[in-house]
Amino acid sequence: MTTDQTPNWVALREDDGRAYLLNRVPGELKVKGLGRFDAAQLLEGYSIGDRITVGQKSLTIVDAALPEARRNMQRRAQTIGIKDSGFLISWMGIGVGSRVLEGGHGSAGLAMHLANVMGSKGCLISVEVRPEHAAVGRNNMERMAEFAPEFPDWHLLEMGLSEAAGEVAGICEQLDAAIIDMAEPWTVVPEIAATVKTGGRLACYCPTTAQLEKSWNAVEEEGLVVEFAGEMIERRWSKAAKGGVRPGNQPMGHTAFLLIAGKIASSEEE
Ligand SMILES: C[S@@+](CC[C@H](N)C(=O)[O-])C[C@H]1O[C@@H](n2cnc3c(N)ncnc32)[C@H](O)[C@@H]1O
Questions:
Q1: Cα-to-chain-centroid distance, residue 117
Q2: 79 and 59, same structural domain?
Q3: Which ligand 1 atom lies nearest to the CA of residue 133?
Q4: Could you tell me if 243 and 121 lie in one domain?
């Protein structure tokens, strides 16, 4: 925190929602889209809620939070966005204190959404096999940890998901939820399902129907019960030029099919 109790990290937001995160520390920094400047000097005398001009841009100073971090994150692998992560979090009951595994971690798109709701009592294990992707995800997560009011106990395991399953018990006893986002989710379902507690849930993020079908079969072979299989369809509306509001002209894009399965108790002893 700075001495005047304004936070070190702030976001500068354009009126259309584009945002830039700044750490108010002395020294020149380069912010893509805004240019080079000393953030501490630039923000001197300004507070959250003020309007500021940087170069040609007029921006509002706001608290750094998930929406701004998402708009401003480094990206390498394709990320899971708001539409799908919001549904996964709610359906799977992920919240304060949850113990969650997610992988591939990629650029941390999903992990940032998870961290945002898990609170400091949560435990989040991210797994990524490619070091160059892990580095990008780590940067995004470490930055978020600096400005988030609460952040879970976060572990990034740089290994394959099937090997990572063995590490879970050493970090947190069992998982409440696991989300698999990699090209062949069904190949790691047996190991990951074993780390989820009875009553917990496992999800696979499947861009294609073939991935959905193979993952569906794999979770059922592990004795899990599919609770949801399908996709979230987002249809945006806009204001019409001659008045009224109507569906916009942009196409309805496909992201992925979501498969969510619950781990049920084994049958009662006779
Ligand atoms: C689509 S990206 C994940 C995006 C991420 N969930 C997000 O929301 O930003 C898929 C990632 O899975 C990683 N991956 C592929 N196979 C893996 C495996 N067996 N174990 C761990 N990570 C794996 C890839 O390197 C890639 O970074």
A1: 10
A2: no
A3: 27
A4: yes
Closest residue by Cα to atom 13, ligand 1, is: 104
Count: domains in the chain? 2
**What CATH number has the domain bearing residue 14?**
3.10.330.20
d(CA 28, CA 24): 11
β-strand pairing of 35-38 with 51-54: unpaired
CB 103 within 8 A of CB 164: yes
Q: Is 136 found in the same domain as 49? A: no
Quickly count: other Cβ atoms within 10 Å of residue 246's Cβ.
Answer: 9
pTM: 0.94
Please check whether residue 1 lies inside any domain of the structure: no
Q: How far is the CA of 37 from the centre of ligand 1 (A)?
A: 35
Ligand 1, atom nearest to 107 Cα = 9
* Closest C-alpha among 123, 136, 104 to residue 205: 104
Per-residue pLDDT of the chain (270 residues; tens, 9 = 90+): 444 455 699 999 999 989 999 998 889 988 888 999 999 999 999 999 999 999 899 999 999 999 999 988 999 989 999 999 999 999 999 999 999 999 999 999 999 999 999 999 999 999 999 999 999 999 999 999 999 999 999 999 999 999 999 999 999 989 999 999 999 999 999 999 999 999 999 999 999 999 999 999 999 999 999 999 999 999 999 999 999 999 998 888 899 999 999 999 988 876
Pocket of ligand 1 (CB under 6 A): 77-80, 103-104, 106-110, 127-130, 133, 160-161, 181-183
Rounded to the nearest whole angstrom, what is the distance from the C-alpha of residue 97 to the centroid of ligand 1?
24
Residue 258, domain extent: 73-263
Residues 178 and 80 in one domain: yes
Q: For the chain, how many residues are written?
A: 270
